[in-house]
Amino acid sequence: MMLAAASIAFAGQFKSKIVTTQVLTITVPDDHFIKITNFSQQGGTDRGVIEVMLQGDTESSGTANVLTATRVDLSTGNNAQNAPEISNRAIIAGPAEIRIQPIAGATLFITYRKESNEGTGGGGGGGTSPTPFPIFISPELRLIRPGCNR
Questions:
Q1: Which pLDDT tens digit goes with each residue over 32-54?
Q2: Extended strands (E) in the chain
Q3: Which of 41, 79, 112, 131 is the most exposed place for a label (fewest CB within 10 A)?
């Protein structure tokens, strides 16, 4: 019982990974989603990309680039930047496979969290549903209109 409680306590925690020489693959199962809160890059000339391959019916399957890395190094030369870039975020629903290819001369950094999609009711409520609150009306309860002294 304690081991089950420990695995539940750590489910949905943020993870960070560094990509330098090997492809990073993250699998998102059905009824889950992944929330990417940071995808940044230091060095390199090409831009790092998050590629998503959706798995499922023929209408929603396919591959797409969904997010490019934010450059954090203010280098000089041809790739010089005048101002820091704004970081983007993404949420990707499963079933999907996410791939990040390494970029020559670059270090890519990603922070993400996988979460279960169960119990949200489709409203994006964060997985919690409101607790019902009983309302009791007494037969002695009378409505009084504003301006009436009875």
A1: 999 999 999 999 989 999 999 98
A2: 15-19, 24-28, 32-43, 49-54, 62-68, 70-71, 90-93, 96-100, 106-116
A3: 131
Query: Would you say 100 and 50 are in contact if contact means Cβ atoms under 8 Å apart?
Result: yes
Residue with tokens 């791939």: 99
What's 84's DSSP letter?
A: P
Q: Is 117 left (phi over 0), alpha (psi -120 to 50) or beta?
A: alpha
pLDDT, mean of residues 56-62: 75
Query: 111: number of CA atoms within 13 Å, CB side?
Result: 9
Nearest C-alpha neighbor of 101 from the set 15, 21, 17 = 21
